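Sorry, I am new here, but would you mind making up a protein's amino acid sequence and the tokens describing how it folds?
***
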Amino acid sequence: MQYRFLGRTGLKVSEICLGTQTFGWGADEATAHALADRFVAAGGNFFDTSNIYNQGQSELMLGSWLKKRGHRAQMVIATKVFFPTGDGPNDTGLSRKHIMEQIDASLRRLQTDYVDLYQTHCWDASTPLEETLRALDDLVRAGKVRYIGASNYTPSQLMRAIMLSAMHGWARFDCLQPEYSLLVRSTEWELLPLCRAEGIGVICWSPLAGGWLSGKYHRGAPPPPDSRVGRADRWDDLPEQRESERTWRIIDVLREVAAVRGKTPAQVALNWLLQQPGVTAPIIGARTLEQLEENLGSVGWALSAEELAQLDAASQIPLPSPYNFIARYTRKREA
């Protein structure tokens, strides 16, 4: 496992981040601890969770593991705030009240006195951005948070946050957590170039598109009942949301490249992400040690330029305006 700086910061994180959304859903505490142990044994030091994952069970299980192992200082722990934690009118969003209450709740569950990375889980259109950023700055100054980040922001929202922080001398977003995979590449239009220009780390959620890029799904066949897509209680990553001719084209090429390289489609899809400019780490999730072991096989090797081009061609989508106009003009200038 290699380590990369998180954007412009001096913080080094493993090139794979272990997402713990499965802790408390699909993985009981014993399994969660075993997954964390195996990840660390492979060289991982970066964990991502959220205050709302499985009603706080994810943070609780990660916290009990941290307490038992006694190596908190060697780990980089990231969590998030935004989504509802109760039925009250102030139990959601990015207000000062909700942020201050939720950081303390997360710290109690994680059994630590600070988190390394505190992220806004989604853009909040109901709260002034200045209020959110000032509250996050106060947490950094209080020592409860080391770095701050955002997830699910548009380019203009992220740029506005960067400028406001610069104007007021507040702590600045040093990490973005967007959805990014071979199936979801619109992140490349503005978000990734902006993050590269501003020195912001990028950690990608759903790098396997909810399992679609794992190779376990086949044309004309229902998803396996034990798969993420096959679960009746899932609300996302359903066939009507992901399935298309483009999806199957990507999966076909993943299988071709994987067969040549002696890898699995999931390992190829993750390795493609690891080689994208500006990406710090994809966030992998696992319910079993076997799944984690497979995902860990995505590091320590690299796709060739020809294989990257093959995957790029299969996953390409037509650029909308004005990106298509700009791309044509840029190509002419570079010719």
Summary: The chain has one domain: 3-334. Residues 3-334 form a domain with the TIM Barrel fold (CATH 3.20.20.100). Residues 35 and 289 are 6 Å apart (CA to CA). The mean pLDDT is 94.
